[in-house]
Write a structure and sequence with these properties.
Strands 1-2-3-4 form a four-stranded antiparallel β-sheet, with no helix packed on it. Strands 5-6-7 form a three-stranded antiparallel β-sheet, with no helix packed on it. The chain contains two helices and seven strands, in the order E-E-E-E-E-E-E-H-H. The chain is elongated.
Length: 115
């Protein structure tokens, strides 16, 4: 079992990050207590963790005087949309998805690419 030295709640309260004596950061589902991710790599204890204001990144530091950044996302669609600059256009949708499926703007905050 990991021994936490620091914990932080995501801004939406749905996830918890914990820094541990096992040189790792653990990500937990706050509702279920289930582990949903982890990162290793520090040479010593992870003594501090914090979420970014949007909840999509965790910054963590250790006794080895190293600070690291872990990009986390609440779901796969959020992760994908964070890497794109636009939704696919209607022509791409018809060619790559299906002409028989109605167009869906997957990333609501991004524009639709021109046809």
């Amino acid at each position: 079992m990991t021994v936490p030295l620091s914990v932080a709640f995501s801004p939406d309260g749905r996830r918890i990050a914990s820094g541990s004596v096992d040189h790792s950061v653990w990500l937990w589902d706050a509702a279920t207590g289930q582990q949903i991710g982890s990162r290793t790599g520090h040479l010593s204890w992870v003594t501090s963790v914090a979420f970014s204001p949007d909840g999509n990144s965790i910054v963590y530091g250790g006794a080895d005087n190293v600070v690291r950044l872990w990009h986390t996302y609440p779901d796969p669609v959020s992760a994908m949309c964070s890497k794109l600059t636009a939704n696919m256009n209607h022509k791409q949708w018809r060619e790559w998805v299906s002409p028989d499926i109605d167009y869906i703007k997957v990333c609501p905050d991004l524009p639709v690419a021109p046809d």
